[in-house]
Amino acid sequence: MTQIPDQPDLYAALRASGVAPAELPALIAASPPAVAARLRAGDPGLLCAILRAGQGLPPVAAAPALIAHLRGQDFAPLFRPDVATSPTLALLTNGEHPDMPPFSDRAFDAWFAAKGIPYGIGTYGEDRSVYRTAQFADALSPERRTRHLGIDVFAPAGTPVHAPLAGRVLHLTYNADPLDYGHTLILQHEGPEAPFFTLYGHLGATLPHLLQPGAEVAAGQHIADLGDWPENGGWAPHLHFQIMTDMLGQTGGNFYGVGHSSLWDVWQAICPDPNLILRLPESAFTLP
Description:
Oligomer: single chain
CATH architecture of the largest domain: Distorted Sandwich
Strand order of the largest sheet: 1-2-4-11-8-7-6-9
């Protein structure tokens, strides 16, 4: 069995190893103790997705079929009026708005309200400096997870959120860590080859009064309201919306909201572009 020597970036080593996902337990057992301990600390689903990518396979087997399926479907709008047909402002975070406070600064609320635009948009795949902290690192690599896996929609606290498609409540959780999701909803949906999931983060305390775990949800149903400080994790009021093709090893009602730049091809298969469902125009993600 292949052994992986101790090195800073075990994700890169796994990709280059040529090992099949089914052999991951044997690989861990054959590795030096320090490496084995680090590998066991990782998400096993993510490690298997990396091994699949290293073999030239789709990181998530069901992802290509799901992406093709979503492109052919119609969806209910998450907000009313529909974000796709409303004025929006792309809230890019890498210096495009020099005077914009961080999303985690309460001064952002007044800054955005002064724009007089109903919806602000945070983009999928953006590399965000706010995530370059120890909270977004792990034992397998010094690289921080900084690439945004969802689309953010900024609107006033209390704005109703509606289900874009039918599903079932898989998790209804309060993720209390600073800069986490706060009140969080994960729905499970039927896909062409396997179930898939949508995540709604930074919600209000009305969530457990609107839904219960296991409840069936209809397309267009009022499922949540946008949360305010601090119930939403400590952010300006907004929805973080994300698609997951696989829950990996995450079972506690939370999921990664940012991924590694070096593994972006893998993360795109795990969490494809939420605009497959939102259907926002390209102008929503760019500045005039």
